[in-house]
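User: Before I run my own analysis I want an independent prediction to cross-check against. Here's the chain; please return only the structure tokens and, at the end, one sentence I can use as a sanity check.
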Amino acid sequence: MENYMVSARKYRPSTFESVMGQKSLTVTLKNAIASHKLAHAYLFCGPRGVGKTTCARIFAKTINCLSLTEQGEACNVCESCVSFNEQRSYNIHELDAASNNSVDDIRSLTEQVRVPPQVGKYKVYIIDEVHMLSSSAFNAFLKTLEEPPAHAVFILATTEKYKILPTILSRCQIYDFNRITVEDMVSYLMYVASKERITAEAEALNVIALKADGGMRDALSIFDQVVSFTGGNVTYEGVIENLNVLDYEYYFRLTDYFLENKVSEVLLLFNEVLNKGFEGGYFITGLSSHFRDMLVSKDPITLPLLEVGASIRERYRTQAQRCPLPFLYHAIKLCNDCDMNYRTSSNKRLLIELTLIQLAQSTASGEDTPGSGRSPKQEIKPIFTLLTPVTEQPETIVPNSAAPQESVLPVKGGKEKTIPSMKELQTGFSIKRIQKDSEKEPPLQEEWTGVSEENQKFDENELNLYWQEYAKQLPLERKAIAMRMQ
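Assistant: Structure tokens:
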């Protein structure tokens, strides 16, 4: 059986020209080699899988090459290059600081530095994950790093520059590696696919590049995984199924439902997403990114910020024209708030559903349509009848000994309504009054016809008018309270 080698190792760049996404750094290193202006210590820092260790190896091989090419690359023919390619070079030493982080390891390295190279000009020490060194190891390394022998070159690589002592940083030339763009990763994956005689769709490779999050090594590893799953025919459907990525189509359909205020369809589509095995946090994060992509698609100036394929880019542009800017701003804020509150929520599904309902109603015109999620409007029926305005009479104070008068107000319908006097509402009773009331015949209850059977509308002015007439009949001790309640 033929020995299989993963693509990340098989297609590792061997020249500065083949390094992807780090053009400015490779040009700087090539010019330094061509002008023979080499520093004794370099620090390569950046995210994972962007080429820090690869560039360190290429740089070490190039400075020891006995016959450089006109482009400033290693010849791969001389004894130094051949020994490096066959991994038997004694001039290049790689040290993993994660497992060799003690003071004794640094002292052993310091003793090796004194030995000059056998072939070539320099002995290069590549210390990977240098941030894993202990504080005492860093301090023991300071003197050697500041004044090494003329034939020694140190290349430190790290993903966490902030963990390195400032005294170490000041002794190195620092090179910050960038994340590799989606376009560069897609083009390199197309190159690898052509070399391996694999058919691959551009949209499928674009999904792989987005999943890699700026790391070429991750992209190649995912590519190998997808190739094994699809059997050499890399399609968009196969990639999203194997990587468990939510299809763009769901987000486009959701946005259409939001613009049409279809709450029921939105909730059903969200339930379909959950049934496919996607978590709510992953869904709301993707929805936030979708609205962000919609926002940058509205303006041709910000369109390059959209890192998707050509066909998906056109769909974004088409749908973005239908979305008003206030809706996009409001949608991004709602999704961001939901994402922040997701972990602490006790009912995570309800939190997301409330957010979706708010999004679906954010562009509503106020009219109730089927599926909008709003109940039919119900008019509030008035309690009192509509009054004709009457002129307000000056207030007169009636002494307690005088009999209270009853106020008569006109009402709609031509009849008058009498407001009962306060004497009948006073508390207290007597035996004489009970006997007197018992001798009277019970009054006949007359139906008040001032208010029609169907309730009629009234406004605030008419209500105030009734209240003022009623307040005039109150005793003096209760008028202060009535005035405050107006």
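Sanity check: The two ends are 96 Å apart (CA to CA).
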